[in-house]
Amino acid sequence: MSLKDLKDVTYYDLNNEINIPVNGQIPLNKDQEALQAFLTQNVEPNTKKFASLKDRFDYLLANDYIETDFYHKYQFEFIQSLYAYLKSQNFHFKTFMAAYKFYAQYALRTNDNDYYLENYIDRVAMNALYFADGDEHLAMDLADEMIHQRYQPATPSFLNAGRKQRGELVSCFLIQTTDDMNTIGRTINSALQLSRIGGGVGINLSNLRGAGDPIKNIEGAASGVVPVMKLLEDSFSYSNQLGQRQGAGVVYLSVFHPDIIAFLSAKKENADEKIRLKTLSLGITVPDKFYELCRDNQNMYLFSPYDVEREYGVPFSYVDITKEYDNMVANDSIRKKQLPARELETEIGKLQQESGYPYIINIDTANRDNPIDGRIVMSNLCSEILQVQTPSTVDNTQTYVQMGRDISCNLGSTNIVNLMQSPDFGHSVETMVRALTFITDHSDIDVVPSIQNGNKLGHTIGLGGMGLHSFFAKNKMMYGDPDTIEFTNIYFMLLNYWTLVASNQIAKERHTTFYNFEKSAYADGSYFDKYTNQNGEFIPQSNKVKSLFKDIFIPTAEDWESLKQAVMKDGLYHQNRLAVAPNGSISYINDTTASLHPIINRIEERQEKKIGNIYYPAPYLSNETLPYYKSAYDTDMRKVIDVYAAAQQHVDQGMSMTLFMRSTIPEGLYEWKNGRTNKMTTRDLSILRNYAHKKGLKSIYYVRTFTDDEGEIGANQCESCVI
């Protein structure tokens, strides 16, 4: 029997029976029956057997399944002890979906695809050994974090660690182009190369001159950004990881770019085929000035990037539009055109209703909260990466005349339910930081030198969280209530504190800091002011939250002062440390809810290729937790924004926050709907975007709409940052 010959299996049918109530109850026992059937009928007979652990590793090495370098950094006796510990922890998948997802997407198989070569313990061991890089103590710590599912490396890291035939360990990339043909050509080549090696690619087009701008003093010669977008979409379509999946990319444009209407129109269903974008994602960078002009119902000016760069001496993205807006309006040397700000705001809302796009990056918020010297100009395919970049200049031979700094994403996630049960929260976080540090240290994207340069200088990582709604439900807390906001505040404060402690310790050990540390708000200590001058904002207040953190160290203002002094003395190794990705299949393997947002359904329905529907019950679902699992589509999105805002104040990068809307809004959900149509309108989205901006969120990912015919618009198809 092999994986190719599976017949008469029962686990799919058993899993599907979860969706058939019995006496008004969800038959969760059917999922456990499906899990056991899957392990018995699929996994056990199709896992290659070995006489001993040594025989297994000899086979994997001899047949080029795993790399040799990391393996030879350990004595085999240690590997045996690592495995003995992992087996003693008695790990079991809790749901059919968790086991199915692991074996379908992560487990190493024979080259003929007939047999599994590893189970979950094997994959955890491979990650621990690989990321510890010969450090036995760290390898044991990592194994401990992963087998208890307190830490989850990003999908590319978890999947590829230790494999001989593997992709990159990093999740996604951010690059930008400047306003000349050489750089545009280099950007298209970079998109091809990055899509080939895996992950999603974010590209900033704001610096390109608009349609009708001059080329070599010939008026009206420039074609604008839309043709470049089409070239990029075709590039991603062509470079599709050997046909395994569609290449994925997102392009960002400033809301004050003269091509903004054409940019948005290219994603509309009724757009002309010559300009219509079918697969490329769209994002816009939105300065505070846009919100102000919309609020005051003013006309807005769109500025020629070509002229702005001539006047200011820097690319368009690097000009603070909110600060310079009036000066740019008054400057007759800058071409500009007008339109009503609310008209553009409505166009944004219409497209979000129709497609889920564009993502929104509140660029002034991101830069105002940025402790690093430099400017953030864009984000990534999932809107959670926000790091400083510098532009590159390329000559006629496609050689870098000026090497800029671009970005690769080195991501991992905490499982909130499980980390809250850690015997040592701080040590757990330090272990995770060290695992992520290995990834940034060993990432070498030489096909795009600007990314290679940015990673080398910044040592950036992005630790996030998943399972927030699981935690709330398990502890009988209603998503969005004051206690949940307070919990989120304290949890992410702790992540911030301990990642700073770990980064400072690594900098001290290596006598190395990230590039330009001395110019950062960490170096002068100002970053720490809100923590050292606090009035208990970051100490548990309610009895509920106090009880949740009763066994966990909570740093006081004095502890923050000590950390501040340590950082000012020895620095930080990592330029960036925290980011909350959207999560995806990996949250199922962790038997938890994705990211920080509410669940969609108590019994989630997943469409799997060639199989049909698979059903996944919400973690810890029971009669007791049922009331606390309200669908995101029935939740006031302001509550979701409030929860994310509680985390955002501690997260130095961004968070992939999705807005969940119904085409027909449930009665009483939003007070501004009273006496108006119950259909979702652009006004609803505008109110929520403004609320998110007011609450200090740096980004809004998809707007996901559940339609009256039970379809979904803007459902997350991103596979690059799903952790």
Automatic annotation (TrEMBL):
Cellular compartments per GO CC: ribonucleoside-diphosphate reductase complex
Top EC class for this record: oxidoreductase
Keyword presence, Nucleotide-binding: yes
Domain Ribonucleotide reductase large subunit, chain residue ranges per copy: 560-582
EC number per UniProt: 1.17.4.1
Alphabetized UniProt keyword annotations: Allosteric enzyme, ATP-binding, Deoxyribonucleotide synthesis, Disulfide bond, Nucleotide-binding, Oxidoreductase
GO MF assignments: ATP binding; ribonucleoside-diphosphate reductase activity, thioredoxin disulfide as acceptor
Alphabetized CDD domains for the sequence: RNR_I
Any single biological process term in GO: deoxyribonucleotide biosynthetic process
Reactions that this protein is recorded to catalyse: a 2'-deoxyribonucleoside 5'-diphosphate + [thioredoxin]-disulfide + H2O = a ribonucleoside 5'-diphosphate + [thioredoxin]-dithiol
Domain of life from the UniProt record: Bacteria
Family, per entry: Belongs to the ribonucleoside diphosphate reductase large chain family.
Cited function: Provides the precursors necessary for DNA synthesis. Catalyzes the biosynthesis of deoxyribonucleotides from the corresponding ribonucleotides.
Protein name: Ribonucleoside-diphosphate reductase
Lineage: Bacteria, Bacillati, Bacillota, Bacilli, Lactobacillales
